[in-house]
Amino acid sequence: RKCVQCLQPPGGSLWIRGRWCPLGLTRLRKKAECHFVNGTEHVRYVLRCNHNREEIVSFDSDVGEFVAMTELGWPEAEYWNSQKEILEYRRGQVNSYCRHNHKAFQSFLVSLSSEFEPEMIVYPSKMAPLGHHNLLVCSVNGFYPGDIKVRWFLNEQEETAAVVSTGLISNGDWTYQILVMLEMTPKHGDVYTCQVEHSSLQRPVIWDWKVQSESAQSKMLSGVGVLTLGLSFFGVGLIVHKRSQKGDIVWGKH
């Protein structure tokens, strides 16, 4: 079979045609990246060609030529590096694509950062009485960019040793979510606080969980009745409330 070069039809798929393809490749997918350091002081253009979700060949403007990532990519890299027009075109993408669109990229990212503030909720992983080991979950969702700091406090003292996190999880729409959990044994009077810091927020967002007494738990459970099943994420003996950094309290979530 004959192949020549990568062509990009609508949808982002790359078709190989013209020059011989060793393993009968008929379709590749490519992804172009622009990397900026100190604005446009240093700009790097990277093109990645993938087959069956595996990167087989790439072009890096810092290197200046195509590099095979697998044995399957060797013939392609060798051929594209022999084509002067293809190399010059890819090298020129640093200016014609990356630098040219830098302002548009920046305004888009700023827009995303200002529009996608994190939403959060705190809940225990299971229903458990006082004095029994449990896990408090601080769920933060729908934020962009991905840089975020989630911290746990017990009675205003930061907890670090008993904290575990899922790490960033992509939502598939430019936004992210993360779960940060605290191992705890609730005692009467304890206040557990989850604090979130993000560039889209003017100040940190804070949620408190306050442990109630046994009698208060009983009254709360009897008052909840049949709603307990639907609201089980509130946990036994715990009330969630949200407060600003200044201390204003709003019960519930918005």
UniProtKB/TrEMBL annotation:
Superkingdom of origin organism: Eukaryota
Location in the cell: Membrane
GO biological process: adaptive immune response; antigen processing and presentation of peptide or polysaccharide antigen via MHC class II
Chief localisation class: membrane
Cited InterPro entries: Ig-like_dom, Ig-like_dom_sf, Ig-like_fold, Ig/MHC_CS, Ig_C1-set, MHC/Immunoglobulin, MHC_I/II-like_Ag-recog, MHC_II_a/b_N
Gene Ontology CC annotation, any one: MHC class II protein complex
Stretches that traverse the bilayer: 220-240
Occurrences of domain Ig-like (ranges): 118-206
Membrane topology term: Single-pass type I membrane protein
Pfam families (UniProt xref): C1-set (PF07654), MHC_II_beta (PF00969)
Keywords, ordered alphabetically: Adaptive immunity, Disulfide bond, Glycoprotein, Immunity, Membrane, MHC II, Transmembrane, Transmembrane helix
Name the UniProt record assigns to this protein: Ig-like domain-containing protein
